[in-house]
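FAQ: What does a ligand-bound record look like?

Like this one, built around zinc ion:
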Amino acid sequence: MIRSSNPSQAAIEFAADLFRQARRAVVLTGAGLSTSSGIPDFRSEGTGLWSRDEPLEVASLNTFRIAPERFFHWFRPLASQIFYAQPNPAHFAMSQMEAAGCIQSVITQNIDALHQKAGSKNVIEMHGSMRTLTCTQCYHRVESLPYLSPYVEKGEIPHCPKCDSVLKPDVILFGEQLPQSAWLQAQRDARNCDLMMVAGSSLEVLPVAGLPVQALDRGAHLIIVNNSPTYLNVRADVTILENVADIIPAIAERTLNG
Ligand SMILES: [Zn+2]
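The answer part, i.e. the structure of the complex:
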């Protein structure tokens, strides 16, 4: 009885109702989803990464071109956390909902591939991923796994097996264009969905932060689960200001078994 008077419980049930009624639900995820997997949001002030260096400068395409060793030195703690990270209950809950046909696709701002590790199949990576590296000279692309361990463990900068130039992780740096195919697919899904759930994103990084507006403008419902308010909370059907790792599994449970 206590739980029924809890506003987040009512919100969870309303969110599950929206998922059950939806035909084409998509989810937009951000850094807040992976903090429960131990990966800091490097864009947020107050994280160790921000205080050590200025990400806008060191994680830029320009710095990578001029001084890749600076980028690799800065990126190493984050790469290490990503390398060892495991999906959390929110990742697994979304994967179960996708398998049950309740989620069509996941659009993510994260580069950690934890959605795929949790079993999600249709993942659109807006900021690239750590799974591959591309040569800065000859554009040869390699799987990152054999290179990540020596880099994370010993700080060895990855070099191209063909021409020995520096390999760049296929993550989108500041000053770099979003991958076009991912962006087109994300826009298509946002415009065609009848429900969008934003999970663990503060909707501060454009143009991805504008995707929910494209969904809303075509009549889709909007659920926002994030531990801080976003600019779109006023337009959402449901907002839950709590940790996604607690709330998403509860929504999935109610959607699949409620
Ligand atoms: Zn090369």
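Follow-up question: can I read anything off the structure? Yes, for example: Residues 1-5, 46-51 have pLDDT under 50 and may be disordered.
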